[in-house]
Amino acid sequence: MIKISPSLLSADFARIADQIGEVERAGADYLHLDVMDGRFVPNLTWGPKIIGDLRKLSPLCFDTHLMIVEPERYVDDFRKAGADIITFHYEATVHVQRLLVHVKSLGAKAGISLNPATPVSMLQDVIGDLDLILIMSVNPGFGGQSFIPNALKRVREARALIDEYNPSCELEIDGGVGRQNIADVVAAGVDVVVMGSSIFGAPNPGTELRALRELAEPATAYAN
């Protein structure tokens, strides 16, 4: 079954508890938390304090995506705040493998995200240490962007790498996914779909999540 990870970046923070409850009741598998520092990407979001506060609102897996420089300086704090999956960018740190091992030592799952221009082959030497690969299908920094079509090719490349070297690793996609293309990304081989504005931009986020899952599920038969 495909997993859906609603991105809280697009939620209404004046109603955040209600909206988390809506997607949770609708069957959300993860909650996606985008952490941006204004340096690695041109936007600012939240830090460990906010994630710690949100942790009180839901038992769902916190799928935490660090779009920050030097993530090694902050992963301990995010884990203490309640992050269950900690994904950092390959482009943001020098010692990728060491950081993966450290994240796992904290009891979290370790993921790597790739910007649209970073070759999937860069993960060849660390695939065995990964719990999750996140393929960005937009340039990170803002919600509501258009899907980059070449991302489907990159998903297939990552799927082949996972299937050959680490079948337990999950493959996630983030950016510009909605009703128009969710079946395509699932058929390409993703396990987890992150969606923000596609869910929280709808009048009823819970109803929209269910509709998106109904569109995605049949495509699992064609994955890979």
Task: Explain this structure.
This protein has a single domain, classed as TIM Barrel. Helix content is 33%, strand content 19%. It contains 8 helices and 8 strands, in the order βαβαβαβαββαβαβαα. An 8-stranded parallel β-sheet has the order 1-8-7-6-5-4-3-2. It starts with a strand and ends in an 8-residue tail after the last helix. With 224 residues, it is an alpha/beta fold. The longest helix is centred in the C-terminal third of the chain and has 15 residues.
Give the gist of this structure.
The chain has 224 residues and is an alpha/beta fold. The chain has helices at residues 16-25, 48-55, 75-81, 96-105, 151-165, 182-188, 197-200, 205-216, and strands at residues 3-6, 30-36, 61-67, 85-89, 109-114, 132-136, 170-174, 192-195. It has a single domain (3-222), classed as TIM Barrel (Alpha-Beta Barrel).
- Helical content stands at 25-40%
Radius of gyration, in Å, reads 16 Å
Q: Low-confidence parts lasting 5 or more residues at pLDDT below 50?
A: none
Strand order of the largest sheet: 1-8-7-6-5-4-3-2
Q: What's the CATH architecture name?
A: Alpha-Beta Barrel
Strand proportion, as a percent range, falls in 15-25%
CATH top-level class: Alpha Beta
Outline: globular
In CATH, the topology is named TIM Barrel
Instruction: State the fourth-level CATH superfamily.
Output: Aldolase class I
Order of helices and strands: EHEHEHEHEEHEHEHH
Number of domains: 1
Determine the mean pLDDT: 95
Count of individual helical segments: 8
Please count the beta strands (DSSP E, at least 2 residues each): 8
